[in-house]
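pasting for ref
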Amino acid sequence: MRKVILFFILISTVIGAWADEITFTANAPEVVVSGNQFRLSYTINSQKVRDFRIPNIKDFQVLMGPTRSSGYSTEMHNGNVTSVSYTTFTYILMGEKEGTYTIPGATIMVSGNNYTSNSVTIKVLPKDQSNDEMNEAASGNVSNKDLFITATINKTNVYEQEAVLLTYKVYTRVNLTQLHGDTPDLKGFHTQEVELPQQKNFTPEHYNGRNYNTTIWQQFVLFPQQSGKLEIPSLSFEGTVSQRIASADPFDAFFNGGNYVDIKKNLVTPKLTINVKELPAGKPTNFSGGVGEFTLSSSISTQELKTNDAVTIKLVISGTGNMKLINTPEVGFPQDFEIYDPKVDNKFNLTRNGLAGNKVIEYLAIPRHAGTYTIPPIEFSYFDLKSQSYKTLKTDAYTLNVAKGEGNSDQVVANFTSKEDLKVLGQDIRYIKTGDTRLTQKDDYLFGSTSYWLWYIIPLVLFIAFMVIYRKQAMENANVAKVRTKKANKVAAKRMKNAGKLLAEKKSEAFYDEVLKALWGYISDKLSMPVSQLSKDNIEEELQKHQVADELIKAFIDTLNDCEFARYAPGNQDEKMDKIYSSAIDVISKMENSIKR
């Protein structure tokens, strides 16, 4: 029994050692001022430590340390209470000369294992050359040297559509409590604002011989839309400074340090000018409007398919530049293909050089006739900033072998092989009129002639034909079920087009609702089933009566189930939405050719 108890104690100790991951972290400010003290600390989440060692701190003066402290921290999460012990070693240092220095990681031993902390990099700023350290004047005034905002751009000479980074930065030596400003009116630019934290963190910076607390207030990436000299106007800000005023009462000045008042300060940034050069002459005919550095790749879903099956070409434009303003390249699908609007998925982030990432474009088409087709290479032309020249990228050509599938397709007129032949015949070849030509004598009158009577007979015949056709259509429209059946595919196609737009906008909830409406609505109209009787069992039974293949029935029911499940399932929504969209189009297309009424 003693051996068993000892074994369980040993196992619990080992598991506890595995469960508690040891972390050893060094912390220090990133920027300090020469001659000022700062704190360097090393913290490890254990109290069973020994042999703490730190490298020689040769670039800083060690004023005190290391001092050791220990403690516990307790957290409660979802009713579970966890306690963590920690040990901290602290040094008080002072920078002696300006520069950027790195302190290597320290080492420590815990339970027989050695651990090394991260290194820290510290920038030491020179001493302030001014005599007044914070210049909190008793007069209650804040000078333009104590608080100001700069507006800077990283480029002054650019091409059209080339990215320019505009930065508004705050410099302060006083206690700035509030700051409000206008949004810049940037005419002639397409503007993208850089997302910055709402909670501003100030860091020291040496500027024009003085040390300031600085923070980036706003940043914008600008894409010039026209050539010439474009101006960035000055921007107005209003700041609130809390400033100490010396008290006349010596007791109040001694115990309370004086009074504090809020001072309003108006700040104005300088105007900036950007020289925008026009793009060079010789633009390719298929110029996309892209300016930057890009690559192009493509893929195809299949090259062996049947009529009425869908084929998808995926085009990926990668790189950095004005990605959002690039025109979608065109794909030269054959004329016999039914083409849908391309789906565009933007996967890029804003950087100082523009938008970086991928622009994914998917082209969906459905062949309606069997045969061998060639999809020519897709071309993408852009202006390359590095070489300052136009470049054209091309994908590979694709050959599609389309076999005859199920269902009826448009019949080709006898003696012609394709629709292209009919089109050429109608535009290029005219029949030669043969036989005798009838001549009309001069001053021959219309009254009493054949043409005269035809002017009465033809309108009468057309009127009678119109009445017969109109009456037939009225009788067909009276049959509501038949009208619904005829319009089922058209209504479903309209809903799927709306679903495609929602897919591009990544509105998953509305997308799934629209796809379900398209599927349920199509089968309700096609089978003339009232909404109250719609169920998967009733649909399956009714489709079997119409001699629809069991595989197609199963595919339709599976698509309904997948759509209902996907809207609540976790995972990558974009991938699931793409799959549901393609499945719904495919099953509706096949169902349209299978149900015969």
